[in-house]
Amino acid sequence: MITIRGLKKHFRRNEALHGIDLDVPEGKVTAFLGPNGAGKTTTIKCAMNLLDRDAGSVEVLGTDARTLKPEHWQRIGYVSENQKMPGWMTVPQLLDYVRPMYGEHWDRDFEKKLLADFDLPLKTKLRSLSRGQWMKASLVSSLAYRPRLVVLDEPFSGLDPLVRDEFLSGLLELTETEGWTVWISSHDIEEVERFADRVAILNNGRVDLQDDVEAIQSRFRAIEIGLSDESASPSGIPENWLNLQVQGRIARFTDSNYDESSSNVDCRRLFPGLVRHEARPINLREIFVALAKSYRSQRQGKS
Ligand SMILES: Nc1ncnc2c1ncn2[C@@H]1O[C@H](COP(=O)(O)OP(=O)(O)OP(=O)(O)O)[C@@H](O)[C@H]1O
């Protein structure tokens, strides 16, 4: 549904995207994660043709993002973090305004269901809504025409836990029953882990990792090593060992490409005093934190 290759974008002297390669496959939920400033919003805006790119290709629904036409937009539901809407309108006025743009695609029953689920005030002007209500209004106006491709940039900001949960369950149901393709950027990794099929992790304008969630989880392990004597950090550690810390007789790190036999061999080679070796599966949040820490120390190492 979305194929991005070699995408580059700079703002003045700052190159924000250094050649992004990313796939958002049809019928799957792809989570887009990364530290602040990694380039998630810039990538999404290039795909939604809100920003022009400097280099590379971006295909959305089989079409170059620069040439998306109204018939494509009728199949795309895009909600951004700072969605602009006319503040002087009420929610029903907003929906009356956008509905005609989607013609037969607009589903009045679904609109009513979303309005009821989100419990939105109907007489209040948009500018007087809370941040969460504002997000919900923009979600209703972007989902009521049952788009095939849903692009959400930080949709949870401002939503309380109950609504967040309801919104996610609804989205999940639609993804399954209607085969929706979802591309969602978020810092809320626990939520994302519950429903994403795929994850792409962005770091400093590059996609560092993208794969099915299960494949990523199967590759990462938290390793703890018990030593017979106090030891210092060895040199020449494998590249897939992230954030090695040695404290007294315990060494800990995250293995980003775990393989039981080679992990045992490497640990014994680098820690001859090894008396215990434990490998624990970790969740997406722990994986993200381990990667973010290693990105930070790489940056600090360079500066
Ligand atoms: N309009 C702009 N003008 C100048 N620099 C920009 C602009 N938009 C983004 N940037 C820069 O591009 C880089 C990527 O920003 P972007 O907003 O895409 O990151 P992000 O991953 O979405 O961050 P966050 O998680 O904080 O929302 C940052 O260095 C940011 O300062």
UniProtKB/TrEMBL annotation:
The keyword Phosphoprotein does not apply. Transmembrane segments: none annotated. GO terms for molecular function: ATP binding. It comes from the Bacteria. Keywords: ATP-binding, Nucleotide-binding, Transport. Residues 2-229 form the ABC transporter domain. The keyword Magnesium does not apply. InterPro entries: AAA+_ATPase (IPR003593), ABC_transporter-like_ATP-bd (IPR003439), ABC_Transporter_VariousFunc (IPR051782), P-loop_NTPase (IPR027417). This is ABC transporter ATP-binding protein. It comes from Luteolibacter soli.
